[in-house]
Amino acid sequence: MKKNLFITLEGIEGAGKSTFIDFIEKFFVDEGRDVKKTREPGGTKIGEQVRDVLLKNENQKLTSDSELLLMFAARAQHISEVILPALSSGKVVLCDRFIDASYAYQGGGRGIEYSKINLLEKWVMPDLKPDLTLLFDLDVNIALERIKKRSDVDRFESEDLYFFEKVRESYLERAESEPVRFQIIDSALPLKNVEEQVRNVLKDIL
Asked: What's the CA gap between 187 and 136, in Å, rounded?
């Protein structure tokens, strides 16, 4: 196994990736690995300020292009300040969302041309790609039911069924196009079964 690893977790809202990142962190810590856990948008002081702008419901007038550019502004800071230094020091980096989220949410959900996203990807991260991406896949109707149980939904979580259908479709298309990097996790299953799926994938890279 590589000394350093860059693992990203992706999926629509309600798919459970934020829950399982702690499980994955424990898995690697138990293996004696040094782990850096982070998230997007965010991960840095500047990135978290950008995240606040992106998620606030009061910012409904934020255009799709502005949303995309803010995502990549936060990502550029995140890569420079957190991800690359952690990988350089031999750590396992676990990131809750990364580049695939931009293709899924701003591309699939918002309808921005993939070519524009690709241009920003080449500019901000020309030599960086996750070693493994866990895609927590879930039927959109189930995901929305989970979201409804939350006390306070953000600007993305308040989107409609059609939006999330497009996001999920985009994620699955990316997974199909890169079957080596992507591992699809059925997050509709009970917690123990999802953990077992994740554990089996991680064992394969040890």
From this structure: 6
User: Bridge partners of 5?
Assistant: 92
Half-sphere exposure in the Cβ direction for 158 (13 Å, CA): 12
Identity of the amino acid at 110: R
What does the pLDDT look like over 135-166, one tens digit per residue?
A: 999 999 999 999 888 878 899 999 999 999 99
| Tens digit of each residue's pLDDT (9 = 90 or more) over 173-205 | 999 999 999 999 999 999 999 999 999 999 998
Prior bond to 41 cis, omega within 30? yes
CA distance 48 to 64: 19
Per the confidence metrics, is the pTM higher than 0.90?
yes
Pull the structure tokens for residue 25.
């962190």
Q: Which amino acid is at 149?
A: K
Neighbours of 196 (CB within 10 A): 12
Of 3, 200, 206, 181, give the one whose Cα is nearest residue 87. 3
> Where does residue 25 rank: exposed (0-12), middle (13-18), buried (19+ CB within 10 A)?
middle
Return the sign of the alpha-carbon dihedral for residues 163, 83, 52, 65.
negative
Q: How far is CA 102 from CA 67, 120, 150, 171, in A?
A: 10, 10, 24, 10
In terms of Cα–Cα distance, which of 55, 47, 163 is closest to 107?
Answer: 163
* Local structure of 116: helix, strand or coil: helix
pLDDT of residue 1: 63
